[in-house]
Amino acid sequence: MNVSNQKYATHLISVRTPFVSDSIFPLCRFFLFSDLGDCILMAKACSNGVFELSVKQEEPTLVPPAEDTEKGLYFLSNLDQNIAVIVRTIYCFKSEAKGNERAAEIIKDALSKVLVHYYPLAGRLTISSEGKLIVDCTGEGAVFVEAEANCAVEEIGDITKPDPVTLGKLVYDIPGARNILETPPLVAQVTKFKCGGFVLGLCMNHCIFDGLGAMEFVNSWGETARGLPLKVPPFLDRSILRARNPPKIEFPHHEFAEIEDVSNTMKLYEEEMLYRSFCFDPEKLDQLKMIAMEDGVLPKCTTFEALSAFVWRARSKALGMKPEQQTKLLFAVDGRSRFQPPIPTGYCGNGIVLTNSLCSAGELLENPLSFAVGLVQEAVKMVTDSFMRSAIDYFEITRARPSLAATLLVTTWSRLSFHTTDFGWGEPILSGPVALPEKEVILFLSHGKERKSINVLLGLPASAMKVFEELMQF
After folding, report:
1. How many Å apart are CA 372 and CA 324, to the nearest integer?
2. Cβ(88)–Cβ(30) under 8 Å?
């Protein structure tokens, strides 16, 4: 489907099917919830007690780069291939003095200018002769939509919990798209609210950016809107992460390993899914690290190591995993500084590599927290230049994708400064590239004015969530 050939009438958004799938690269959408710092948007109830946000979208338009850019096929590395999912994010802005009358115009104009630097975003995904994702740099442009909401920004609702029905109206979905090849790499929607505020909603494909790359792009877009030069110009050459010739697998890559579900947790997932947010303030995080080190096994541990180990153990127990059940923890490590030589500043592709810890549920739960933290520390140390090159080569040979069976995948956005994006209206009152694309994913988000607290967001079957909530009290 070519977006430029479609005619879409102005319409009111209706509730959409959460997932649209296809046999090749299914369109796995990231549902939105977000860390708000101290700004929690309160829900507005209708007469029946349920808030209903109405958003009127105008016809989408294409925004090409403001100048001629390179054409042809743009290489995506094997690290890009593994994360080909749509990430949907929102940025809420409000300025009593400035209002929102020219917001869409300014943001749209800045988009055309910043696309000169980030021209692959103006192209379209396709499949290469090797059967891999690649960008055809056609220059046709990003999709841009203007919209109006029937309320004030404050009335959207409490988005610390997932609400795809409401928040999904603030991002534009390509009608009829069955897979990621039918969705442009960048789709933007600016929704004006009655209070004078507005929301920028983005759909971006993770194969184009990882979290750091996406943050640098959006911040560069904001700098362009304010007439400033880019602080971090993009480094676009992804061939620096090509597989070696011949490929050389030097490590066992358990991140791709399939695990048998001997605990029959799939049966548990037939229950109603509940989504919760748990806030760990600095005091609680310090307490968690003290518990991890109290037996003297570990000389030190980081906040991430302690929190990841803690939620891995708690989730495994909540799901009732049998002692003999193998369980895996997956998390991403930024490889930019770990590659030799280091990846250049501004590299906008995926520079993250998945690492893993693997053990039986019995070992995980019967041992003290220090045992799990030690496994996390070993997984972090494992990420060297050799390991990352081996992972790239492993995909080159096997085309395998990470398995999530009996697995917890921790995604952390707590160190990314999306909250600093400024298009001329100041920093967003809330923001977040926030998602739970799969039931195995848990998200860490920074929280609070100084962003020293961490919100842990996850979904579990109802009975498991009850146990998990109890385990969060310590």
Report:
1. 16
2. yes
d(CA 350, CA 21): 24
What is the rounded distance in angstroms from the CA atom of residue 409 to the CA atom of residue 439? 9
Q: Residue 83 has what DSSP assignment? A: T
Environment class of 19 (CB within 10 Å of its CB; exposed 0-12, middle 13-18, buried 19+): exposed
Strand partners, 56: 12, 148
Separate counts of helices (H) and strands (E) for the chain: 11, 17
Instruction: Using the predicted structure, report yes or no on whether residue 134 has a pLDDT greater than 70.
Output: yes
What pTM did the predictor assign? 0.86
In which element (H, E) is residue 62 found? strand 61-63
Structure tokens at 165: 């029905």
On whether the CB atoms of residues 435 and 32 are closer than 8 A, the answer is: yes
What is d(CA 464, CA 469) in angstroms, rounded to the nearest whole number?
A: 9
Structure tokens at 56: 């009127």
For the question of residue 422 being annotated catalytic, the response is: yes
Q: Which of 32-36, 293-297, 430-434 has the highest mean pLDDT?
A: 293-297
How many Cα atoms within 13 Å fall on the side-chain side of residue 40? 9
Q: Has residue 240 got a pLDDT over 90? A: yes
Burial 33-61 (b: 16+ CB within 10 A, else e): bbbbbeeebebeeeeeeebebebbbbebe
CB atoms within 10 A of CB 340: 10
Strands 11-12 and 55-57: antiparallel
Nearest CA to 408 out of 447, 375, 448, 451 is that of: 375
Q: What is the mean pLDDT of residues 59-82?
A: 98
Any idea which residue has 């980081």 for tokens?
A: 302
Pairing of strands 352-360, 326-334: antiparallel
Q: Kindly list the structural domains of the chain, giving each domain's residue range(s) and its CATH number in brackets, ordered by start.
A: 3-241 (3.30.559.10), 254-414+451-471 (3.30.559.10)
**Active-site entry in 117, 206, 419, 447:** 206
Q: Indicate the DSSP class of residue 431.
A: E
Run of H or E including 89: strand 86-93
Q: Which of 64, 387, 112, 70 shows the shortest CA–CA distance to 237?
A: 70
β-bridge partners, 360:
326
Report pLDDT for 33.
Answer: 37
Look up tokens 């195995």; give the residue: 440
Helix (H) or strand (E) holding 183: none
pLDDT digits (tens, 9 = 90+) for 180-222: 999 999 999 999 999 999 999 999 999 999 999 999 999 999 9
| Residue whose C-alpha is closest to residue 402's, from 339, 457, 328 | 328
Preceding amide of 246 cis, omega within 30: yes
